[in-house]
Specification:
The protein is mostly helical. The protein has 5 helices and no strands.
């Protein structure tokens, strides 16, 4: 676990998010030519962001909630981005439209994952608890 000060963690988190957003924008602009270099940058950005929160005592309730709905975030993110992308039109070379796509996609993904968690996942999780068999240990 990295032993980092709070300013160092904030700097690493900011760097990671900046790299991810920048790579997403340039992947739209340059397409397949950017794939090799972009993948390395995205990996570095994810690593920087992960290390910034790894080993910290950070337990903010919004982050805990995002952890609960994380499967829905994974499942619905491409669908939400494509819906927002169709609504906005092309984003190539237009930073403001790209930012709108990114934020709109993020908000729509969180909304879809929240509804999915409440309406689909929670009832199944209750069923799981009901039918769980607890083995007692031998005496």
């Amino acid at each position: 676990m990295p032993l980092l000060s709070i300013p160092a963690r904030l700097l690493m988190a900011s760097f990671g998010i900046t790299v991810l957003v920048t790579c997403g924008y340039y992947a739209e602009v340059f397409g397949p030519k950017f794939a090799f270099f972009g993948l390395a940058c995205v990996t570095g950005g994810c690593l920087a962001f992960f290390l910034s929160v790894c080993g910290s005592s950070l337990s903010l309730s919004p982050l805990v909630y995002l952890g609960k709905i994380s499967y829905g975030l994974y499942v619905y993110h491409l669908f939400a981005l494509s819906l927002v992308g169709r609504a906005l039109g092309t984003t190539t070379g237009r930073p403001l439209r790209y930012a709108a796509l990114w934020w709109g996609g993020l908000l729509l993904t969180i909304a879809m994952a929240s509804v999915s968690y409440r309406c689909l996942e929670t009832p199944f999780l209750r069923l799981k608890e009901r039918f769980t068999c607890v083995q007692s240990r031998p005496v």
